[in-house]
Structures are given as C-alpha cells and as structure tokens.
Amino acid sequence: MIPFCKILTFGSEEHQQSIALRRKILRVPLGLNFTEEELQQEAEQMHIGCFTEIQLCGILILVKYNSTTVKMRQVAVDDTMQGKGIGRVMVVFAEQWAITNGYTLMSLHARETAVPFYLTLGYSIDGHQFEEVGIPHYKMIKKLI
C-alpha cells in the first residue's frame, strides 16, 4: 500500500469524497459544518487528494496568496490512516507543486495539536497563538527554496 497524491477536479466524485472526509475529521468534532458558500469559494483553490490504491485517505487545499506565497489549509487524514505517513506524503507533494509553480513560501494555520508535525517538516512558528474555529492555532511558514 503505497500512498499517492493527485490534484482533484472541483465538483468531481473524488472532490465530493474529500468534502466528506474534511467534514468528518475537521468539522464534526467541533460541531461545525460547511456552508454552500464556503464550498463554492474553494472552486479556484488547488485540492490535493492522497489515495491508497483507489481509496481517498487524505486531503489538503492550497490557496494562492500572492506571487510568492501559497497557503496550505484544510489538511485532513482519515482517522483509520493517521500515523502512517499520509500527511507527510501530502505536504511533500504540495511543496513540490508550489516550487514547480514558482512559489517560494508556504504558509498555514496549524491547530495547536498539529504544530509538532509541521515542525518535523521544517516549518516554523510565525507569531503568537490565536483562535480560529474556536480552538488554538499558530501561523507557520516554510521557505521552499
């Protein structure tokens, strides 16, 4: 079982599966859901899915911030696959995509519980703790080249 990543087509069946995965992992535990408006705003964003054989097991989204910076958001790995390197595979894929497309900086808002994971991948904390969706977060960045 070697995980692989690919870019998802907005509105596709795989994209719909990724929304369900994000809802399950990121939203339901906080008592939140997506609005149709939130989901439509994602149409221009880069959706990266991670698969084992044909099953979606992870998702992350990239948002073009400016000509040099891309923001990673909505990173989720199915709870049955956490701790198996899926997150690392997705982040490396996202970084390579960003470098190939001329970006030099990756930015993200990490939940406090995810900070150690991003630190192991070379990200650093940029600023003070803040609250987002009702829980503690940190802005983190990584220079890509």
What is the molecular shape?
globular
Secondary structure: helix percent: 25-40%
Low-confidence stretches: none
Query: What would you report as the Rg, rounded to the nearest angstrom?
Result: 14 Å
> What composes the largest sheet?
8 strands, mixed
Instruction: Please state the average pLDDT score.
Output: 95
Which structural class matches the secondary elements? Answer: alpha+beta
Task: Please write the string of helix (H) and strand (E) elements.
Answer: EHHEEEHEHEEE
Distance N terminus to C terminus? Answer: 31 Å
**How many DSSP E strands?**
8
Number of helical elements: 4
Q: β content, as a range?
A: 35-45%
Draw up the topology in text.
Layout: E1 4-8, H1 13-27, H2 36-41, E2 46-52, E3 55-64, E4 69-77, H3 86-100, E5 105-111, H4 115-120, E6 124-125, E7 130-132, E8 135-143
Parallel strand pairs: 4-5
Antiparallel strand pairs: 1-2, 2-3, 3-4, 5-8, 6-8, 7-8
Description:
It is a single chain. The chain is of the alpha+beta class and about 140 residues long. Helices cover about 30% and strands about 35% of the residues. The protein has 4 helices and 8 strands. Strands 1, 2, 3, 4, 5, 6, 7 and 8 form an 8-stranded mixed β-sheet that branches. It is globular, with a radius of gyration of 14 Å. The model has no long low-confidence stretch (mean pLDDT about 95).
